[in-house]
Amino acid sequence: GLGEERAKVDRMFGLMDQFLKNDPITLQNDILRHVEYTVARSRFSFDDFEAYQALAHSVRDRLIERWHDTQVHFKRKDPKRIYFLSLEYLMGRFLSNSVINLGIRDQYADALSQLGFEFEVLAEQEGDAALGNGGLARLSACQIDSLATLDYPALGYGLRYQYGLYRQVILDGYQHEQPYYWLNFGNPWEIERIHVTYPVKFYGTVEEEDFNGGKRQVWVPKETVEAVAYDNPIPGYGTRNTITLRLWAAKPSDQNDMESYNTGDYIDAVVNRRTAETISSILYPDDRSHQGKELRLKQQYFFVSASLQDIIRRFKDAHSNFDDFPEKVALQLNDTHPSLAIVEVMRVLIDEEHLSWSRAWDIVCKIFSFTTHTVLPEGLEKIPVDLLESLLPRHLQIIYDINFNFIEKLKKRIGLDYDRLSRMSIVEEGAAKSIRMANLSIVCSHTVNGVSKIHAELLKTRVFKDFYELWPHKFHYKTNGVTQRRWIVVSNPSLCALISKWLGTEAWIRNLDLLAGLQEYATNADLHQEWKMVRKVNKMRLAEYIETMSGVKVSVDAMFDVQIKRIHEYKRQFLNILGIIHRYDCIKNMEKNDRRNVVPRVCIIGGKAAPGYEIAKKIIKLCHAVAEKINNDPDVDDLLKLVFIPDYNVSVAELVIPGADLSQHISTAGHEASGTGSMKFLMNGCLLLATADGSTIEIIEEIGADNMFLFGAKVNEVPVLREKGPALKVPLQFARVVRMVRNGYFGFEDYFKSLCDSVEVGNDFYLLGSDFESYLEAQAAADMAFVDQEKWTQMSILSMAGSGRFSSDRTIEEYAEKTWGIEPCRCPF
Ligand code: GPK
Per the UniProt record, which EC number(s) apply here (predicted)? Predict the structure, then answer.
């Protein structure tokens, strides 16, 4: 029986030891064995890529071992688990991160060098896992790393897109998108679980049927697709715990086409089966705007249905009463993308498990928490009712019922305030009726989290004001963080060594608050010297990359000024470029002698524009047009360079961030929910030039305004400035640089016209004009500070030393304790 089974597992657990050894000889044999038998190349002749593959398989074996142990341990302890539901993960490369978290990087480096290979060179053979767009997706990846490191019983669910985020190719300065079929060369970091599959159903009708003397609604679906699990083991750092990121792939189901096979349409039937695979084949490349497309809705439901079947199956393995569900299961909704999960839980509990509505509703209200990542209205998802009706008719009914109950209760609370009732309704009436996924998520979740303090304020006072007034207790925030494992240890090994040396410990890798211990050395001359050395080496590496990518030679003595992130009007890359034009214009109009006083700059911009986002694409083209002019102007020479880094992604970030002196986070105040790039720069000792927006406001609290270059309108000033409309004061310099673009100084005047129009007085929604003067002042202050290298180095050290709060470990601990109610479950040994 069960007791015997348990005793057997206990016995095996007692005997268990690390099976695979990690000394260099074992590792070498292991790599060669994989060259010969897994990669199927001769062990006497293989290239760097094949060496990478073999190496990756050797690491994979070690991941699998710990992953098995962790799963067995979780199963025995049966703790409450957190299920993290996200449609996007930007994991980047796995190799370096894995061996570092496993604690065997140096052993591998030794083993490889004896075979004549360099670890770093092989690591670069790996392509990024880019299953997401921007900050939201990278946040999921950082949080997964923290969940593993902090020993939480967590499981991340996602989709295994075959086409990841498109590759950005620049032709004549214009962005082109190329499909990124990333699985072309195999993926050693995943384990295909051919037996972990679930049917997912779509379309059909809802029928009424007799049940227990009454009536009930049943869904009779028409189409079935199979979901297959692909497990990606995620190792924690400094722990044996290795958790699962389970990504679903769609496969044709045999349940569909029994009939058509008999009609003689064999070929058509087989061809049709293949359309099932399209459900999980492509990542939508727009970050935030989602225009009610059927395929997108199919993806969302496919994801939700497979994940919930898996979660419920695991629950039922050990429990028989659904009233215990909230004690064992916490579901985290990463934005509204997975919010159909709410409806699906209701449907399964009522229609399949035969719970009453009120029992099911009780359970739902205890298990979901929701994090929102934006304040922009276009970021709030809406699903057209007619789409839902045809694809998921029973779900639509359930949404209507949830909404009916909600509105009835609401009327009792607030009376017949129809404006407010209609604002809060889950269903948006109008020509095209739609479902407001944010409203659904708020109504059904016990907690709504923002991603920074100011973001939560804006949610409470503007975006979700009505809901906040109704349920103030639901609204919280957990300021975002990033993982120091990837953003310092993996990407900046020399800084990592320096920190450990000066702190006398590596404990900061699991407890980033310890970085504050470096504050006392902020003026130490020896530290300054080592610090500058580390930074210079990183800048040289970046300079080399820039030269290969763009052909532009840059001097490492110049200030490296970086803005890398998705291209968006609210992030104001255009403001940056206009500032660069101003700088160029100043240099051109200077006496030759005065040019000696100019602080040399290398301006670096990188980021992708959504394929349909016209203005964002024009910003990319403008960057290239301006760069062409500046970089070829002998008057300017080394005083100013502008480079656009193509195809920005996680591994490009790992290279660029450690080499940056200054980084820009210059969104119009009140628009960046948090921003996480700034945290990565901070950890690497890069100074920030920023507006008081998102998490920057909290960074100021940690490192002090003196150690950064702040500018621009504050959150509360923005609406006041917008009110002024055409009466808004704009500096002459701003008008001048915009005119240069408009009049064709950089060519392409027709193409740039609409871009220029978007910042004309009266039209300048993101307030580039009114922030311009203060932006230039902040830039001038940065120049001044850079001239005094001791001062700069001190600010740089203090930036890094003040970054402890921005570890995703801190964020995840807050979620675990305050929102999810889960505890660590550490695998022994
Ligand atoms: C927010 F709404 C969205 C979105 O669709 N995609 C995305 O990347 C970002 N985000 C915010 O823009 C950032 O401010 C924030 O730091 C990040 O999500 C993570 O919370």
Answer: 2.4.1.1
Q: Per-residue pLDDT tens for 275-310?
A: 899 999 999 998 777 788 999 999 999 999 999 999
Is 60 exceeded by the pLDDT of residue 15?
Answer: no
Token pair of 696 as six digits: 């920057």
With a Cβ cut-off of 6 Å, ligand 1 is lined by: 134-136, 139, 287-288, 373-374, 379, 451, 480, 672-676, 694
**Distance of CA 134 from the midpoint of ligand 1 (Å):** 7
Q: Which two tokens stand for residue 672?
A: 């960046």
Gap from CA of 427 to ligand 1 centroid (Å)? 25
Look up residue 490 and give its DSSP letter: I
Instruction: With beta carbons less than 8 A apart as the criterion, state whether 675 and 566 touch.
Output: no
Ligand 1 atom nearest to 455, measured from its CA: 14
- H or E element at residue 362: helix 357-367
Q: What is the DSSP string of 496-549?
A: HHHHHHHHT-SGGGT-GGGGGGGGGGTT-HHHHHHHHHHHHHHHHHHHHHHHHH
Span from the CA of 454 to the centroid of ligand 1 (angstroms): 14
Q: Tell me, yes or no, if the two domains 79-92+128-479+814-820 and 502-806 fold the same way.
A: yes
pLDDT 10s digits, 590-615: 999 999 999 999 999 999 999 999 99
**Domain 79-92+128-479+814-820 class, CATH top level:** alpha beta
pLDDT tens readout for residues 503-519: 999 999 999 999 999 99
Q: Hey, which CATH number is domain 502-806, 3.10.280.10, 3.40.50.2000, 3.40.720.10, 3.50.50.60?
A: 3.40.50.2000
Going by alpha carbons, the residue nearest to atom 19 of ligand 1 is 136
Q: For residues 671 and 695, what is the distance between their CA atoms, to the nearest angstrom?
A: 11
Which letter, b or e, does each residue of 396-418 get, where b requires 16 or more Cβ atoms within 10 Å of its Cβ?
Answer: bbbbebbbeebbeebeeeeeeee
Is residue 585 exposed (0-12), middle (13-18) or buried (19+ Cβ within 10 Å)? middle
Structure confidence at residue 640 (pLDDT): 98
DSSP assignment, residue 802? T
State the catalytic residue, choosing from 201, 290, 314, 373.
Answer: 373
Alpha-carbon torsion (401, 407, 411, 414), positive or negative: positive
Contact of 359 with 269, CB cutoff 8 Å? no
Amino acid at 45: S
- pTM (2 d.p.): 0.97
Q: Give the position, in ligand 1's atom list, of the atom nearest the Cα of 566.
A: 8
* Spans of all domains in the chain: 1-77+94-127, 79-92+128-479+814-820, 502-806
The complex's ipTM works out to: 0.99
731-742, pLDDT tens digit by residue? Answer: 999 999 999 999
Indicate the pLDDT class of residue 265, thresholds 50, 70 and 90. confident
Residue nearest to atom 7 of ligand 1 (CA): 136
